[in-house]
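go over this chain:
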Amino acid sequence: MASSFSKVPHVSRETTIGQTDALIVVYGPLSCASGPVSASTVLQSLFDRSMWFFSARSRYLVPNTPLLFYETRRGITAIGRVGTVENVGQGDTAFLNSWGISNYKIKISLKKTRVLPAVISMLPIIDQLDFIRNKRYWASYLQRSPVRITQHDYDLIVSRSNDGD
């Protein structure tokens, strides 16, 4: 049976993340036909709509999973949780196309989102993070999204903020 992008991918028990895991959502600025869009504008625009988008290969998205939002070259800027997971609809496609994005198939609703009062730099704790195995090339682990992390890593990162979860 051929798989189809018209359905949300089935997530088996073996591929779902555990209750104690979390995800890092990596984002950055966009280059649109109408001009560049800053990373903070991307974050705020999607937070205002309580949604985020992923490619169909993102199989670790399950409701209530904790999220950390990592802005490239800056650090952790926001936190939240996965609400619902669904296919991208027609209205979403028009919104994404207005930013020059066409390869996203999955939309999640966001809950309990908030922008942190200060960016959390990961540099001081790279050596303590389990998901980064080769510490010398730590940035290579943040070149895809979402990035699966352990509860230990989540707690360590969030503890660097006065905001908490």
Q: What stands out?
A: The CA atoms of residues 48 and 151 lie 27 Å apart. Residues 22-147 form a domain with the Archaeosine Trna-guanine Transglycosylase; Chain: A, domain 4 fold (CATH 2.30.130). The chain has a mean pLDDT of 84.
